[in-house]
Amino acid sequence: MRRPIVAGNWKMNKTSAEAVKLAEELKPLLADVKGVDIVLCPPFTSLEATYKTIRGANLLLGAQDMFWEESGAYTGEISAKMLLTSGCKYVILGHSERRTYFGETNQTVNKKLKAALRAGLVPIVCVGERREEREAGVTQQIVEDHVAGAFEGIRAEQASEVVIAYEPVWAIGTGLTATPEQAQQVHAFIRQILTKLYNSNVGQQVRIQYGGSIKPDNATALFSQPDIDGGLVGGASLTASSFAEIVKSV
Ligand code: PGA
User: Is 146 a known active-site residue?
Assistant: First the structure.
């Protein structure tokens, strides 16, 4: 049985005070939820304040990115250990916005994935095709490149710990959601890729979230697909009531 996981990717939103307020609002709304990993991913500057707020509650902390080196002259970067010691358990890697605006490639995602696992963080690796790629019929090829590239050199025991987020780029922040069937098809395909790269245990154990315009009114249909284990939620995670509703529908 794969444990469902719903993460809120707050992106570049919320000052520390605003992050604390949102976390405070979420605590009572989600206090009764059991059997789900609920992860909040605020900006770096709000990690510690958010952690202090959610410590002891059933909410976990994640970051939105990290660098692969452990320390040194890398101005502006943040290491895995810095995240861990700020209370993070998870880290999002290879989000399409990082690939589009900050030059992330499958190679850099792979280096970050290795560094995150070495440090004991659980990576949430984002994969997914752009609109032109879907229209050109190369969705599977792109997703396979993203997955194989990210997992290069990762052993099977470690691979099964990783969370994958399938996020079709055309569905992120656009209000266009993949239909539950479209998403399910790609999720099942990702299990096939993992089975080919490793074995069927890894294919079945890895948790795969869907992401892209998840809202309270479409979450249930998406989460009820057999290979969808939860969601990575952007816009709708910025409001306590909508994020709580999405978490509860898993
Ligand atoms: P969205 O973002 O829910 O606003 O589409 C999802 C994501 O980018 O993780």
Answer: no
